[in-house]
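Lab notebook, bench 4. The sequencing result for the construct came back, and we need a structural model before the next group meeting so we can plan mutations. Quick request posted to the team channel:

Model the 3D structure of this chain.
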Amino acid sequence: MITEAPDGDGPCAIRFRRAVTALMIAGLLGSMVLLIVIGSADAFAALTFAGRVTGFLFVASGLIQGAAAAAAFDYWGKRRWKHSGAVTLTGALIALFTSGLLVFLWFEEREYTPYALTYFPLFCWSLWALWLLGREKAWRGIPHPKGFAAGVTATALLASTNLAYSAVYQPYSLPVQFAIDITFGNPVMGPGREIINLPVTIRTENTGKVASYILNSSYQVMGRSAAFEGNSSGLTGWKTDVKRKFDAERYVGPAREEIINTGPVIRAGTWLETGDVQVEQRVAQIPADAGYDLVRATTVIALLRKDRGKIGPEFEVPRHSWDPDQARFFECPPECEDQVLHSGRVVHNNNIVNVTREPRHVYSRWTTGKGSTRVRLTISPADSKGKASADDESYDQYGVFWVGSGVATVPFAALTNPAPE
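Done. Here's the predicted structure in token form:
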């Protein structure tokens, strides 16, 4: 490490100045490239105003670093410009606070990312540069140097704090509002009155002001069978009913449900903008002698706020666990259920987060069985084999949420013997 200059203008002193100049310019140019690379992704592609402002601030800081590199060449050269030392000092302060911000955010997760190989050395370099510039009293030549140093330091601290807060901790300013309804239409008897064709309408509307990706969706039509008990002994089975998410009923014995129809509602990977309405029609075909007492339907949709992240186009392609050529996408014990997987890279809308974390992937699993249909989500790094890891991770930072409909219910008798209009 270069610490003290040789005296005089001899060969050693000249080599020292050249080495210091080269190190100072290299650090400032490295900081310039890093800030422009990080900022340009948000400045021209962020989906929020705050994200674009943050991006342009990073790009502007990078341009200042370029000017500081030119000033450093003059300061350790012929010093034709009296403020070159102050500009170089400003560049070193910018490098300290921006690289310090990135180092601070990296320590939250402590994951490997190639960008860490740039801002960790830059952080160490900035400490050395500030020490050297302080020893050289680089602020000489400007009026009120203490006020200048205090102003630059305070501004950098406030800007770094604000960037960290807006990048990681700022709560959502706009709520997500979706309206989902599932309704039954008029039943139609099939030929021979053996099959009941029951229309099901699922309507989804983005009633808020935030566009959202569809991560997965599912609807299910269930048939409930229960014996009528004329001589009631009270709500003796209410604990079992509540545990199975049934209503407690006095004159109905133990009930069971089975799936009649199920499937996704909206294609995964698409999105709904503000005001968009998606209407899907399904038809549940039920034997007229099925023996149900009630038919019920419900739906659920998992979404990701579009202002918090972007999903790669590969997410739209479904992967099936039972296909041998797609087994590489799954990390699943042999006894787990067959499932349909959607997976893709999710990029945070603030690039500061992306350069301080490992790449995240969103995994959305859809599976069904005799009892019910389930949708499961995971946002996490890929495992060591590049497969969908079974380890869950909090995905609040990416604005993932669930929206469900109410439960549509119709007596089975109304399907076989509709009431007269």
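The chain has a mean pLDDT of 82.
Will bring this to the meeting.
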